[in-house]
């Protein structure tokens, strides 16, 4: 009974009983009719129908009492076999480690997005203070990538007809830098991506970065600084920097 419910996942008493009856009879429908009294006196049953169905009913009750299955109206659902305490504890610890790892990955992704937002908004403010609009051919649209290689490198570039695909072949090593990396190197993220244990950071830079972010996300930036044991210096009249 247990194996049949486990295999089906969701079933009914009649379905389980009929299948078990079928294992002893070539005509389970007739066997069920016999159990319900739909046969003539004197007919010989190939086996004890009532006994099998009663045992199925009893077995289901035991499984429900052990919380291995659940029953709602006529539907019976598989929950799972119980495990010993040591095994269950080990499985929970393993699941905990996996979830903590996923949380750390998500946290790092969030922090990367925070630095991106800081860099983008700093770029907007920088462009506002330029005073004049650069020529169209001097503008670089976002997103972009920069490919860096030696001057002697031979580059073969093929472009699709609709200009949506570019294929580059280099005969030497090269580096690819995306727009976010370039903006960070320009200092538009206050060099927060370079934070390492034991470094110092001007309070002014941290406060400016926090003001750029939504209020609900500012504590995450503070936590990032605290986790790396960064020493935040008092506000200085000099330009904010990391030493």
TrEMBL record:
<dbReference type="InterPro" id="IPR038168">
    <property type="entry name" value="TF_DP_C_sf"/>
</dbReference>
<dbReference type="InterPro" id="IPR003316">
    <property type="entry name" value="E2F_WHTH_DNA-bd_dom"/>
</dbReference>
<dbReference type="GO" id="GO:0000977">
    <property type="term" value="F:RNA polymerase II transcription regulatory region sequence-specific DNA binding"/>
</dbReference>
<dbReference type="Pfam" id="PF08781">
    <property type="entry name" value="DP"/>
</dbReference>
<feature type="domain" description="Transcription factor DP C-terminal">
    <location>
        <begin position="87"/>
        <end position="229"/>
    </location>
</feature>
<dbReference type="Pfam" id="PF02319">
    <property type="entry name" value="WHD_E2F_TDP"/>
</dbReference>
<comment type="similarity">
    <text>Belongs to the E2F/DP family.</text>
</comment>
<keyword id="KW-0539">Nucleus</keyword>
<keyword id="KW-0805">Transcription regulation</keyword>
<dbReference type="GO" id="GO:0005634">
    <property type="term" value="C:nucleus"/>
</dbReference>
<dbReference type="GO" id="GO:0000981">
    <property type="term" value="F:DNA-binding transcription factor activity, RNA polymerase II-specific"/>
</dbReference>
<keyword id="KW-0238">DNA-binding</keyword>
<dbReference type="GO" id="GO:0005667">
    <property type="term" value="C:transcription regulator complex"/>
</dbReference>
<dbReference type="InterPro" id="IPR036388">
    <property type="entry name" value="WH-like_DNA-bd_sf"/>
</dbReference>
<protein>
    <recommendedName>
        <fullName>Transcription factor Dp-1</fullName>
    </recommendedName>
</protein>
<feature type="domain" description="E2F/DP family winged-helix DNA-binding">
    <location>
        <begin position="1"/>
        <end position="80"/>
    </location>
</feature>
<dbReference type="InterPro" id="IPR036390">
    <property type="entry name" value="WH_DNA-bd_sf"/>
</dbReference>
<dbReference type="InterPro" id="IPR037241">
    <property type="entry name" value="E2F-DP_heterodim"/>
</dbReference>
<dbReference type="GO" id="GO:0051726">
    <property type="term" value="P:regulation of cell cycle"/>
</dbReference>
<dbReference type="InterPro" id="IPR015648">
    <property type="entry name" value="Transcrpt_fac_DP"/>
</dbReference>
<dbReference type="InterPro" id="IPR014889">
    <property type="entry name" value="Transc_factor_DP_C"/>
</dbReference>
<keyword id="KW-0804">Transcription</keyword>
């Amino acid at each position: 009974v247990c194996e049949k419910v486990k295999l089906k996942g969701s079933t009914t008493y009649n379905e389980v009983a009929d299948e078990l009856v079928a294992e002893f009879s070539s005509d389970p429908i007739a066997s069920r009719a016999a159990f319900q009294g739909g046969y003539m006196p004197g007919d010989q049953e190939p086996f004890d129908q009532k006994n099998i169905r009663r045992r199925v009913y009893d077995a289901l009750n035991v499984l429900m009492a052990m919380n291995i299955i659940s029953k709602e109206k006529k539907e019976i659902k598989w929950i799972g076999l119980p495990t010993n305490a040591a095994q269950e504890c080990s499985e929970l610890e393993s699941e905990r480690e996996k979830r903590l790892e996923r949380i750390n990955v998500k946290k790092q992704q969030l922090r990367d997005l925070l630095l991106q937002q800081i860099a983008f908004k700093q770029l907007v403010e920088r462009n506002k203070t330029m005073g004049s609009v650069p020529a169209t051919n001097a503008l670089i649209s976002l997103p972009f990538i920069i490919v860096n290689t030696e001057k002697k490198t031979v580059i073969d570039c093929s472009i699709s007809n609709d200009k949506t695909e570019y294929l580059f072949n280099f005969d030497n090593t090269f580096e690819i830098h995306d727009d976010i990396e370039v903006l960070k190197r320009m200092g538009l993220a206050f060099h927060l991506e370079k934070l390492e244990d034991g470094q110092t950071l001007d309070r002014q830079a941290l406060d400016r970065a926090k003001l750029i972010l939504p209020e609900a996300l500012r504590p995450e930036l503070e936590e990032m600084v605290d986790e790396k044991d960064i020493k935040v210096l008092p506000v200085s009249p000099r330009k904010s920097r990391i030493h």
